[in-house]
Amino acid sequence: MQINWDTFWLEILQATADTFIMVGAALLFAGIIGLPLGIAVVVTRPGHLLENKYIFNILNPIINIFRSVPFIILLVAIIPFTRFVVGTSIGTTAAIVPLIIYAAPYIGRLVENSLLEIDPGVIEAAESMGATPNQIIFRVLVPEALSSLVLNFTIATIGLVGASAMAGVVGGGGLGDLAIAYGYQRFETEVMIVTVVLLVIIVQSIQSIGNRLSHIIRRR
Questions:
Q1: Is residue 38 part of a domain?
Q2: CA distances from residue 200 to 10, 109, 135 in whole angstroms, order as listed
Q3: How many angstroms separate the CA atoms of 12 and 220, rounded?
Q4: For the chain, how far is it from start to end, CA to CA, in angstroms?
Q5: Considering the domain boundaries, does residue 169 fall inside one?
Q6: Which of the residues 56, 106, 164, 207 could staple to 22 if both were Cys, CB 3.0 to 4.6 A apart?
């Protein structure tokens, strides 16, 4: 069956919107989980502000375990959980659940890397001035690492764009679903090319915005 491109563009626009919804929602909730997770892994590690080997030795392996599972496997493995949370295992809403679980530990590790880049002398100076651990975390560590955090969240966002495309394998919606349904199953090469071009444009736009924001923050 030949595609009517005069009307098919509406499907492409809807798929693009679904991709933005999936990535945006997943990034929001994954960030809410991943940011404090990354901070906790940093400040509880040996020799840091709130050293606690028990918490560190629990959180660190948890992050490693979830990061070790390929997204396509995670997507299928948690279908019962996804169905329990949102009532379905297919569609845009359902894809958000595995995307959050996939991205949260990844963001946690990126946050950890950003915070560990800070010169220990900055922390020592804050401690010598009588700052509490909470003040050091939120008034020294996070502000000092903000430029790096922006870049790392940009990386996480791009990773979510790619993962959202993979969600199309199980009917997750978005551009990935469109590419699978038309480009792969129906051998519509033009659809595949269009979806690839759109994904490239989205990724390049996100990277450019992230680079610009990081540069602005670094100059302040």
A1: yes
A2: 19, 25, 41
A3: 40
A4: 57
A5: yes
A6: 164
